[in-house]
Design goal:
The chain folds into two domains: about 50-145, Leucine Dehydrogenase, chain A, domain 1 (Rossmann fold, 3-Layer(aba) Sandwich); about 165-295, Rossmann fold (3-Layer(aba) Sandwich). It is about 40% helix and about 15% strand. The protein contains eleven helices and eleven strands. The strands form three sheets. It has a six-stranded parallel β-sheet with strand order 1-11-8-7-5-6. Strands 3-2-4 form a three-stranded parallel β-sheet, sandwiched between helices. It is globular and about 50 Å long. It binds NADPH dihydro-nicotinamide-adenine-dinucleotide phosphate and 5,10-Methenyltetrahydrofolate.
């Protein structure tokens, strides 16, 4: 079996593959894939405008002044602009009350120019995230974090209106090289509400056999090494080392970690949860950081916003 043809490595091919140690991974270029998706979305938006329909609208809600959140929200607006989605940014101070945030969400729910509402997470401490996310109209829940959308994702035979963006982006990347996940062993490192758990749910829906790992997992390295598909979303710089990865595996690196680097203009560089330079020699496919899952997350947000606009067509 060749790791280039999208087939799944089985344990009896493992030792043979190890000898091919120096066969470098193919890079799964999320930035390029996201660019293609954005072009397609731009075309569809233009088509809608030509039909006399209004531009899809996305409202972002940023509470407080977390610098990383400000960067992410800014790049979401930029991406909207690129494809013709109208984006509206709402900012509240870190001192905003629960009521103020809830009132804003309700106002956006009632605003017909707003098709999608994204409340940037994490919210400052003191605010009830569950209540805020639950207040978003499910037809505008382009992040897919409303309890009804997550509940449907977790249940057989139910369809969420929207799938969370980062997990959806991971699946597009994985399925671009491994379209048939039937019976594949998938390991997800991390169980957060926004990445680990929903990506695990999507992998189960795609018929993979899924193991979810977290800070209490024993024998992490061995569990990871059993994976045909490994998704790392822990937020620990370069935690996944070369001997954690089965030769030929598809490795999706969700982590975005800043590490100090005086040679960089910003004083830091971004690294993933995977030690890219060593894992690239053994994985079949590997996503880079930056340029992997991050841009796909934003492309999925645009896709969800366009879908929300379509849902609101009368
Ligand atoms: N590219 C993108 O689009 C996105 C990237 N990210 C990045 O992905 C990473 C994860 O984000 P997020 O899910 O929000 O993070 P969280 O901090 O919410 O979750 C981290 C998860 O990893 C587990 N974990 C932490 N340390 C270890 C360890 N040493 N061994 C095993 N498991 C561990 C935690 O376990 P436990 O539950 O037991 O605490 C938890 O389940 C971050 O770097 C974040 O910046 C996030 C969102 C989008
Ligand atoms: N309600 C909500 N929805 C989210 O989708 C959400 C969130 N809250 N909170 C935080 C995380 C994080 N996240 C990222 C999106 C894009 C990049 C991204 O584009 N990264 C670039 C690099 C960006 C840089 O240079 O910093 C890349 O990986 O190439 C990263 C991370 C979305 N999140």
């Amino acid at each position: 079996m060749n790791r280039r043809n999208g087939s799944i490595m089985t344990s009896n091919t493992l030792s043979a593959k190890k000898e091919e140690h120096n066969m470098p991974a193919q890079i799964l270029d999320g930035a390029a894939m996201a660019e293609k998706i954005r072009q397609q979305i731009a075309q569809e938006v233009a088509q809608r405008l030509a039909e006399g329909k209004p531009a899809p609208g996305l409202a972002t809600v940023l509470v407080g002044d977390n610098p990383a959140s400000q960067v992410y929200v800014k790049s979401k607006h930029k991406a909207c602009q690129q494809v013709g989605i109208r984006s509206m940014g709402y900012e509240l101070p870190a001192t905003a009350s629960q009521q103020e945030v809830m009132d804003l969400v309700k106002r956006l729910n009632d605003d017909p120019a707003v098709n999608g509402i994204l409340v940037q997470l994490p919210l400052p401490s003191g605010l009830d995230e569950e209540k805020v996310l639950g207040a978003i109209s499910i037809e505008k829940d382009v992040d897919g974090f409303h309890p009804i959308n997550i509940g449907r994702l977790a249940q057989k035979g139910r369809e969420p209106l929207f799938v969370p963006c980062t997990p959806a982006g991971c699946m597009v990347l994985i399925e671009s090289v491994l379209p048939d996940l039937n019976g594949a062993n998938a390991v997800v490192l991390g169980r957060s509400n926004i990445v680990g758990m929903p990506v695990a749910l999507l992998l189960v829906r795609a018929n993979a056999t899924v193991t979810i790992c977290h800070s209490r997992t024993r024998n992490l390295k061995e569990v990871c090494r059993s994976a045909d598909v490994l998704v790392a979303a822990v937020g620990r710089a370069e935690m996944v080392r070369v001997d954690w990865v089965k030769p030929g595996a598809v490795v999706i690196d969700v982590g975005i970690n800043r590490v100090e680097d005086a040679t960089q203009p910003r004083g830091y560089r971004l690294v993933g949860d995977v030690a890219f330079d060593e894992v690239k020699d053994v994985a079949g496919w590997l996503t880079p950081v930056p340029g992997g899952v991050g841009p796909m997350t934003i492309a999925m947000l645009l896709q969800n916003t366009l879908r929300a606009a379509r849902l609101s067509d009368v």
